[in-house]
Amino acid sequence: MAAHDAVEVILAKRDQHELTDSQIDWVIDAYTRGEVADEQMSALAMAILLNGMNRSEISRWTAAMIASGERMDFSTLSRPTADKHSTGGVGDKITLPLAPLVAACGVAVPQLSGRGLGHTGGTLDKLESIPGWRAALSNEEMFTILEDVGAVICAAGDGLAPADKKLYALRDVTGTVEAIPLIASSIMSKKIAEGTGALVLDVKVGSGAFMKDLTTARELAETMVALGTDAGVRTVALLTDMATPLGRTAGNAVEVQESVDVLAGGGPTDVVELTLALAREMLAGAGRGDVDPADKLADGSAMDAWKAMIRAQGGDPDAALPQAKESHVVTAPTSGTLTRLDAMAVGMAAWRLGAGRARKEDPVQAGAGVVWHARPGDAVTEGEPLFTLLTDEPERFDRALASLEGGYDITDGAEFTPGDIVLDRIGG
Ligand code: URA
Prior knowledge:
By secondary structure, this protein is of the alpha/beta class. It folds into three domains: 6-52, Up-down Bundle (Transferase, Pyrimidine Nucleoside Phosphorylase, Chain A, domain 3); 82-319, Pyrimidine Nucleoside Phosphorylase, Chain A, domain 2; 326-411, Alpha-Beta Complex (Aldehyde Oxidoreductase, domain 3), CATH 3.90.1170.30. The protein contains 16 helices and 13 strands. It has helices spanning 6-14, 21-32, 38-51, 55-67, 95-104, 123-127, 139-148, 162-172, 180-194, 214-230, 253-263, 269-285, 293-298, 301-312, 343-355, 397-404, and strands spanning 82-86, 109-113, 151-155, 198-205, 234-241, 249-251, 326-331, 336-341, 369-372, 379-380, 385-391, 408-411, 422-427. The protein has a four-stranded mixed beta sheet with strand order 1-4-5-13, with helices on both faces. Strands 6-9-11-7 form a four-stranded antiparallel beta sheet. Strands 10-8-12 form a three-stranded antiparallel beta sheet. Helix 5 packs across helix 12, helix 5 packs across helix 14 and helix 15 (343-355) runs antiparallel to helix 16. It is globular and about 70 Å long. The model has no long low-confidence stretch (mean pLDDT 95). The chain binds uracil. Residues 168, 182-183, 186-187 line the site of uracil. Pfam families: Glycos_trans_3N, Glycos_transf_3, PYNP_C.
């Protein structure tokens, strides 16, 4: 590999030049090995945030991050593979019903998930509220479960895109998370290294998401779809609403329960709608567009796949879920129609109740969270429950209540039709 030095690469991006392939390969490799210092990589990340990267730079940057670690290969599985990635939102439990549903349709789902940070929840934190369930699997265990059950949701091993692990932690503390080239390459390096055949991206838009407006969300989606397509992964993106939280719960055990309700044929209509929309995209990408996932929800086979998936990872799908020790009900201050429920306000409340973490090493409470008893468009009655707050530590209620203040509107006599969940589709 050609030798460069960190200052040369930083100066090039600072002065708005295109980085060469050789500069990119070198800087990612040298950073992973510890030869480029954190302060140098921080300066480069900031220069990228300010000056951007073109498509060929982003593509090379992603390839270099993939090359920093191992690549998984599921091509010898007896079924095609498809995966989904969400950019993160409030009440976003969709992976939980989606993975077993798609497995029940004959497509394997190798889902490597993360933990929550800040106001958005993490899939692994949610699943860990199921007694006995474990997130860490070896590559061999993952392969066996995929062959036997068809779906696995587990933590990414240390070997996958280690450059991204290091760089993401650095971006988190240097104000450089929000650069579209860095977000796109971070997400796609892990998904391409994971070896899925098809990929559906759920790019969230709105107050509870990374991307607050449709224009930036579309730019991120287009960048990621291009990266996936260039790497030979059939990739599409749905832009979906995250101004309102999904479903009726945000937390860990409460979101598992809501997912089980969906698998049992019930659950909130928006969760069912988005689960089916993403399942149809995954099946189409894997060449199984002829299967209707709604049938597999209705006939119980998605629920069977869920139970098998949980058991295969040590969990007891029939065990009672943990419950918070304390609860606090917020009642509606007036009667009318709920016309706004702000995803960020709900996400912050759930986080402050103990469902999420402020630092990577913090524990989360399995039972903590928020349940909302109405969704935008529903009639509410003064004095009736609007929210139930759940936590093991009642001293957390005040701060959670403060984050809900101003987070909803009730309008008397308003005609209100909630907007669509799927706002746009990119690729395919
Ligand atoms: N998720 C990731 O994995 N990386 C980012 O940069 C942002 C969200």
